[in-house]
Prior knowledge:
98 residues; mainly alpha; 4 helices
Amino acid sequence: MAEPTIGLLASAAGLAGVIWLVMQLVRTVLDAATFDRFAPVIAAVVGIILALAYAIVATVGPITGAVLLQAVLVGLFGGWMSQNVNTMVRRATSAPQE
C-alpha cells in the first residue's frame, strides 16, 4: 500500500487497520478490565458504522439492501479481525478464571 485512502474502508482487511487505530484511542479512555471485556463488541460496532458510512458515501445510484448488508458484514468482519479472532474465540470457549 503506497498511501492510505478512504477506499480502505471498502475491505475488511483495510478496515481492520483503521479500527485497530480507533481502538487504541478507546483503550486510553476505558479501564483495562472493561476494555478486555467489551473491546470486541466496540470494534465490531465501530467497523459497521465506518463501513456503512463508506457505503452510503461511495455508492453511485440507489442504495440497495444488498449494499447495506455487504457493508454490515465487511464492518463486522473488519472489527472482528482487528481484535484478533483467535483470542476472542478462546475467551468465549474457556471457563472463567478466578
